[in-house]
């Protein structure tokens, strides 16, 4: 159900930012007293941090199955001064419940579970755990820090990546059965787990590496639907809450727990999701299926998210916050995928709300739909094109369109998705912080045939019109600077399903290359050189560079010369109806 990816971390976050998973829901009997009574939509009164004392009894709320919170108990072990960040202390507590006993300790998805004093005042939210393996010792984010989210603006302060446990408390923890390694490791926010729908576990592992997912750990999960199938349920303290980067076919969702509902505002998690400060994530309810044990790491909650019910607009050190009802603007990602022979087709839709993950989301969406229609990881060919529309920081629109062909003898649905990821990431990076990607539309066709052209012969017209010489038959040809070279390439189908054809092209010798040595190249993408560097800046330069880059189905003829250590390139592109392999080249003596 889940897999660890210790290598690349998509959005370059610190370990402390990767904390979606330490918290969510415990199983047990509903406890008596004000802490577990029907949740009040008024913010519960804060229990002063200065009054928190070792040995104090606490009660908490969380969900272990379904949507109804149940109770857990615990005992305060002490307070770590500045344990979360400068001026933000961490409260340590030992928790108890039947579900904690069953799974071995605090689980990912319990983040935000409210913890109350015996008089019903809110102490804070479960949000941190010991660094090595599950245990029942929790780090609690103080309620006062979480309530401060309601007035937050500007950039967030950085949390501590790891919190050391003072020596005087290490011995006390060891006496309760916590291992020496756990005590020495201290507290940390658990790696942020994203539940990602639309991709199976094996496919998700490959995608997470190729697309540089924004998480240390991701796992296959259910989708958040585009629209509610039933009336939306209002969040409650101790209930499930999910925040998503996208929903629909590919839902990237982190599930945790509501700490408090203050009128129309929901506060949860007790730590960051992406740690982006002001943000635009989508808020969802969730239905917990069960808490999954994990012998190699921390247990984690498995849940189905609902359709959107609100917006997360603050993603801060002490948690997430946002209003119920208002849904953030989304980027629709739509793909129409069909088999070339007409045997199947599907239209897929995903809504993305988080621009920094747009490449991950778009590529995962395309792969999920390609996999669904092709129904297997196997050899074949694909042709796909997409149009990406957006808005510059000055408010003017931009558009980028692309199309290409791919062939692969093992996994044809993977390659187009990787290309889309690279293009979306290039454009996203070029936009800066104020531009937007407004829509991505994709059309693709798949075939079980291996549709590939091979360049079997290339000839150049030299001396006089009508005399053609194969490039491999001569060591060098002569041409004047500024002259037009005529070439013709013979293409043959690799698997005899496209036949054979001749493509005629012309390419001009660089006029400023008089007296230089050059090379005539007739080849496909990755072999033929690119043209001169593009001008401009920002997204316009990125679009120009992407448009000039040769496709795998482009046949390129280029003359390259290097007079006075300056590379000059003129080229001609002839798009074909399948991927091209191979190439030919010959030296050119450029006459004055």
Characteristic key phrases:
6-stranded antiparallel barrel, 4 domains, mainly beta, Peptidase_S55, 8 helices, signal, Peptidase S55 domain-containing protein
Helix-strand layout with pairing:
Blueprint: E1 2-4, E2 57-62, E3 70-85, E4 88-96, H1 98-103, E5 114-116, E6 122-130, E7 137-142, H2 143-147, H3 167-174, H4 180-185, E8 187-188, E9 193-196, H5 201-211, E10 217-220, E11 240-248, E12 252-262, E13 265-268, E14 277-292, E15 300-316, E16 319-323, E17 331-339, E18 345-352, H6 358-374, E19 380-391, E20 397-408, H7 414-431, E21 436-447, E22 452-461, E23 468-470, E24 476-480, E25 484-493, E26 500-508, E27 517-523, H8 538-548, E28 554-561, E29 568-575, E30 579-581, E31 583-591
Parallel strand pairs: 9-10, 17-21, 22-30, 24-31
Antiparallel strand pairs: 1-10, 2-3, 2-5, 3-4, 4-7, 5-6, 6-7, 6-8, 9-12, 11-12, 11-14, 11-18, 12-13, 13-16, 14-15, 15-16, 17-18, 19-20, 19-21, 22-23, 22-25, 25-26, 27-28, 27-31, 28-29
Helix pairs in contact: 6-7, 7-8
């Amino acid at each position: 159900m889940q897999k660890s990816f210790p290598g690349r971390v998509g959005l370059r976050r610190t370990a402390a930012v990767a904390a979606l998973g330490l918290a969510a829901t415990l199983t047990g009997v509903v406890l008596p007293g004000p802490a577990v009574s029907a949740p009040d939509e008024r913010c519960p009164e804060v229990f002063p941090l200065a009054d928190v004392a070792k040995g104090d009894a606490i009660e908490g709320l969380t969900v272990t199955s379904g949507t109804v919170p149940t109770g857990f108990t615990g005992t305060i072990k002490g307070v770590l001064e500045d344990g979360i960040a400068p001026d933000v202390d961490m409260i340590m507590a030992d928790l108890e419940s039947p579900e904690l006993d069953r799974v071995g300790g605090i689980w990912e998805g319990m983040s935000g579970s409210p913890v109350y004093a015996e008089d019903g005042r809110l102490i804070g939210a479960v949000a941190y755990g010991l660094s090595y393996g599950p245990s029942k010792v929790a780090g609690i984010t103080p309620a006062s820090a979480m309530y401060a989210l309601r007035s937050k603006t500007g950039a967030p302060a950085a949390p501590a990546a790891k919190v050391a446990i003072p020596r005087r408390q290490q011995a006390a923890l060891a006496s309760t059965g916590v291992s020496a390694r756990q005590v020495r490791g201290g507290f940390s926010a658990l790696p942020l787990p994203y539940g990602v729908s639309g991709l199976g576990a094996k496919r998700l592992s490959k995608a997470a590496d190729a697309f540089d997912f924004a998480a240390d750990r991701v796992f296959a999960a259910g989708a958040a639907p585009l629209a509610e199938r039933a009336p939306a349920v209002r969040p409650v303290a101790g209930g499930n809450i999910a925040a998503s980067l996208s929903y629909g076919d590919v839902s990237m969702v982190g599930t945790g727990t509501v700490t408090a509902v203050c009128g129309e505002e929901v506060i949860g998690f007790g730590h960051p999701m992406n740690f982006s400060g002001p943000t635009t994530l989508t808020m969802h309810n969730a239905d917990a299926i069960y808490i999954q044990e994990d012998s190699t790491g921390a247990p984690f909650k498995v849940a189905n998210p609902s359709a959107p019910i609100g917006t997360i607009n603050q993603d801060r050190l002490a948690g997430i916050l946002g209003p119920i009802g208002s849904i953030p603007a989304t980027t629709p990602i739509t793909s129409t995928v069909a088999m070339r022979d007409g045997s199947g087709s599907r239209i897929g839709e995903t809504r993305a709300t988080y621009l920094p993950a747009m490449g991950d989301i778009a590529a995962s969406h395309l792969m999920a739909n390609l996999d669904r229609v092709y129904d297997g990881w196997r050899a074949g060919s694909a042709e796909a094109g997409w149009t990406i529309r957006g808005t510059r920081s000055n408010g003017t629109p931009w558009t980028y369109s692309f199309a290409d062909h791919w062939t692969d003898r093992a996994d044809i649905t993977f390659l187009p998705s990787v290309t889309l990821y690279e293009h979306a990431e290039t454009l996203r990076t070029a936009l800066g912080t104020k531009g937007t990607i407004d829509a991505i539309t994709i059309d693709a066709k798949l075939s079980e045939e291996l549709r590939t052209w091979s360049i079997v012969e290339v000839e150049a017209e030299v001396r006089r019109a009508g005399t053609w010489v194969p490039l491999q038959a001569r060591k060098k040809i002569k041409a004047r600077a500024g002259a037009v070279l005529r070439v013709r390439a013979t293409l043959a189908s690799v698997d005899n399903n496209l036949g054979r054809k001749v493509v005629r092209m012309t390419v001009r010798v660089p006029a400023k290359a008089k007296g230089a040595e050059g090379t005539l190249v007739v080849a496909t993408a990755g072999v033929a050189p690119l043209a001169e560097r593009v001008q401009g800046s920002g997204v316009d330069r990125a679009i120009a560079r992407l448009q000039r880059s040769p496709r795998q189905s482009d046949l390129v003829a280029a003359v390259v010369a290097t007079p006075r250590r300056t590379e000059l390139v003129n080229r001609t592109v002839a798009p074909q109806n399948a991927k091209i392999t191979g190439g030919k080249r010959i030296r050119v003596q450029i006459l004055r």
